[in-house]
Write a structure and sequence with these properties.
With 762 residues, this protein is mainly beta. Helix content is 6%, strand content 25%. It has a 31-stranded mixed beta sheet that branches. Strands 36-38-40-42-44-46-48 form a seven-stranded parallel beta sheet, with no helix packed on it. Strands 19-21-23-25-27 form a five-stranded parallel beta sheet. InterPro entries: Leu-rich_rpt, Leu-rich_rpt_typical-subtyp, LRR_dom_sf, LRR_N_plant-typ, StomDev_PlantInt_Reg.
């Protein structure tokens, strides 16, 4: 039981001693003995609630859950309306304002509105709460509160539990008021901005009864402080993760807190060597530290931390795996449950002693520099549920002997160990069923058809990553019965047609394979699918209208196939951000449903047979950054509405049948970096290079070749500070090359061929 749970239990035991609790009901009741005045205050509070999706307050007429009154006095003592504790769920959150009527609950001791969408005036913390002097418990965590934390909270001198974590804009410039709360045991200010509070260690040190202190994500800048007397002798949990500490580890004040059972220093910039005093923190059960690669831990400091159950170290400068495990082996082989040692530049070969940590349920050694083979002793970890050895340089083979004892295994990640080979044989009987499997860029050792166990082992999996493995064979026909949410099989040799997909699938990658047939002739079967990449296959024929069922798509890539016909006239594609159909044989006009895709960023319809005009609604896509339409049969003028695309960086209209003047809209595209209009019939005003081009200061690549421009090259041609490629060949330019062209300091490629240019090269 962690310190937070112990403290909550402590409070509940205290409440149970003084209150009559409805222990048989999952929802506590509002007894009939509540005083009329306080009943009316609660009903006024209810009138401020504008949204109650689960009907928690529907029957607040006479009695209802979430309220406890004293059987002796009738006063309201508790108001508990937390939302799905401990996880916020928007679908069940109460919505509205916190009525000042609650000020009438003068005897209130517990107030919990956490994880609801409730706010005070102007979205701020309701200041009247500071007038409820009998409160011992306040939990407003996960509420969208803004503004300053009121220092008047220091008037609630009986307060033992205060949690204001995870608001959306709360801050404090002075937390001196905390010194007026002598009974405070739990303080949660996670994500409250305390960047202007420099003396926070001195203040919290005056709250000698603190058991839990959570100041994660508070933008604190310093943990340097010296104390003549350290008062936090009862503190068990300290969370200082995600702050802005930038100092030597040894200068931090908290290393002498020997009572700590939980210490989280994740995501700070603490550098140098861990102090020797870490080895004296023998009560530690959970220790988390992720940094930036400038920290060093001597393995012997962990030797006497015999109560550790979770060790999470990331971003260390270097370490040897054998030395590290030897230190932990001193007294932790039967105790430690979770060992995260990712991204630490750990070197060496995984020792056989790893098999002695028989209580491990999680082992993460990812993103290191481990070499050599995986020892067979890994099979002795019978409690192991998750193993991650990805992003190393492991070699040798993983065989059935390695996996035989891992009966609890649910997640395995061997991604990107390119010289590690997995050899299990066709007749292998797996002792587990995986939920997550990542074998991308390994050597699966699977030839021709997949073995019979391959899909059986993943029948319950939610994530399967097998990309870049040369896997052959076809997808199973019963995929609609699987639980997969993420399926990544890109860059293999998978053949056959796409079956009906799993109903919970949200991510699908089977690009760079040998799939054939059509795209879902009947139904896709994955209504929640958000990401689909089937590019670079042999998929043929028209695209089925069943693709319109995928209303949650935000990424669709069907490029480099043999698709033909018109894209179906879908309705409701509102989430699309990427839409790639390039290099097919699709025809018809630019799909009209795209005009409703206001989130679209990347559009590529190139190398098809689309015809007709570029529609005027193309300018109604406010977020688009890339439009690539080259090698089609598009014609007519460019609509002036394209000037609305202020985020457009890449526009390729080349090799179409566009004609007319290249209008001044180009000068109104402030973000344009790549402009390719070659192989059309464009001209500028009087056929010259359009002068408004000189406003495109971000241009890096300009291609006007194979058009009908003529006249002299203007002197401002050298005013493009970022241009690297300038292609103007096959026009009718004449005269001399302006000397300003030498100002193009970043120029890599220049093509002026097949014009009427004369004179000398500057």
């Amino acid at each position: 039981m962690d310190p937070t749970q112990k403290f909550l239990l402590f409070l509940l035991v205290g409440v149970a001693a003084t209150l009559s609790l409805a222990t048989n009901s999952p929802v506590p009741q509002w007894p009939a003995s509540c005083t009329p005045r306080e009943r009316e205050a609660l009903l006024a509070f209810k009138r401020g609630i504008t949204g109650d999706p689960t009907g928690r307050l529907t029957s607040w007429k006479r009695v209802e859950g979430g309220v406890r009154c004293s059987n002796l006095t009738g006063h309201v003592l508790e108001l508990h309306l937390w939302n799905n504790f401990p996880r916020y769920d928007e679908a069940t959150a109460l919505v509205g304002h916190i009525s000042t009527s609650l000020i009438s609950l003068e005897h209130l001791e517990h107030l919990d509105l956490s994880n609801n969408n409730l706010v005070g005036p102007a979205g701020r913390f309701p200041r009247f709460v500071s007038s409820l002097r009998n409160l011992i418990y306040i939990n407003f965590s996960g509420m969208p509160l803004t503004g300053m934390v009121p220092p008047q909270l220091g008037n609630i001198t009986k307060l033992q539990y205060l949690d204001l974590s995870h608001g959306i804009g709360m801050y404090s410039t002075d937390i001196q008021w905390l010194t007026n709360l002598p009974a405070l045991r739990y303080l949660g200010l996670s994500n409250v901005n305390l960047s202007r509070v420099s003396d926070w260690p001195r203040v919290v040190n005056m709250n000698s009864y603190l058991i839990v202190l959570d100041l994660s994500g508070c933008s604190l800048t310093s943990a340097s402080q010296s104390f003549s007397q350290l008062n936090l002798t009862r503190l068990e949990k300290l969370d200082l993760s995600y702050n802005n500490f930038n100092q030597p580890l040894a200068s931090c004040w908290f290393w002498n807190l020997t009572s700590l059972t939980y210490l989280d220093l994740t995501m700070n910039t603490l550098s140098g060597q861990f102090p020797d005093s870490l080895g004296d923190m023998k009560a530690l059960q959970v220790f988390k530290f992720w940094s930036n690669g400038h920290s060093i831990i001597m393995p012997n400091l962990l030797r006497n931390l015999c109560n550790l159950e979770i060790l999470d170290l990331g971003g260390l400068r270097s370490c040897n795996i054998t030395e590290l495990l030897d230190s932990l082996m001193h007294c932790l082989t039967k105790r430690i449950r979770k060992l995260y040692l990712w991204n630490n530049n750990i070197t060496g070969t995984l020792p056989t002693g790893v098999g002695k940590f028989t209580s491990l349920d999680t082992l993460d050694l990812s993103d290191n520099q481990l070499t050599g083979s995986v020892p067979y002793e890994i099979s002795m970890l019978t409690s192991l549920a998750k193993i991650n050895l990805s992003l190393n340089n492991l070699t040798g083979e993983i065989t059935k002997e390695h996996l035989a004892g891992l009966k609890s295994l649910k997640s395995i990640d061997l991604y990107y160990n390119p010289y590690l080979k997995i050899v299990l044989g066709d007749e292998w009987l797996p002792p587990f069923r995986l939920e997550v499997a990542r074998f991308g860029s390994c050597q699966l050792g699977i030839n021709d058809q997949l073995p019979h166990w391959f899909w059986t082992i993943f029948s319950r999996a939610t994530e399967l990553v097998m990309s870049s493995n040369k896997i052959s064979g076809s997808l199973p026909t019963n995929m609609e019965t699987m639980s997969l949410e993420h399926l990544l099989l890109g860059s293999n040799q998978i053949t056959g047609v796409i079956p009906i997909l799993p109903p919970n699938l949200i991510w699908l990658e089977i690009q760079n394979n040998m799939l054939s047939g059509s795209v879902a002739s009947k139904t896709f079967g994955a209504p929640q699918l958000g990401f689909m990449d089937l590019s670079s296959n042999n998929i043929t024929g028209p695209i089925s209208g069943s693709i319109c069922e995928l209303l949650n798509l935000d990424y669709l890539n069907l490029a480099n196939n043999h698709l033909e016909g018109e894209f179906p006239r879908c309705i409701g594609f509102k989430n699309l951000e990427l839409f790639h159909l390039n290099n097919n044989s699709l025809s018809g006009k630019v799909p009209s449903f795209l005009k409703g895709c206001k989130r679209l960023k990347y559009l590529d319809l190139s190398q098809n047979k689309f015809h007709g005009r570029l529609p005027s609604w193309i300018g109604d896509l406010p977020n688009v950054e890339r439009i690539i339409l080259n090698n089609n049969l598009l014609s007519g003028h460019i609509p002036t509405s394209i000037t609305n695309l202020t985020n457009l960086q890449h526009l390729d209209l080349s090799q179409n049948k566009f004609h007319g003047r290249l209008s001044s809209w180009i000068g109104d595209l402030p973000a344009i970096q790549i402009l390719l209009v070659n192989n059309n019939s464009f001209s500028g005003l009087s056929g010259k290079v359009p002068s408004f081009l000189k406003g495109c200061k971000q241009l890096k690549y300009l291609d006007l070749s194979h058009n009908k421009f003529h006249g002299r090259l203007p002197s401002w041609i050298g005013d493009f500070p970022e241009v690297q490629i300038l292609i103007l060949n096959n026009n009718s330019f004449s005269g001399h090359i302006p000397t300003s062209i030498t100002d193009l300091a970043k120029l890599i490629q220049l093509n002026l061929a097949d014009n009427n240019i004369s004179g000398v090269l500057p």
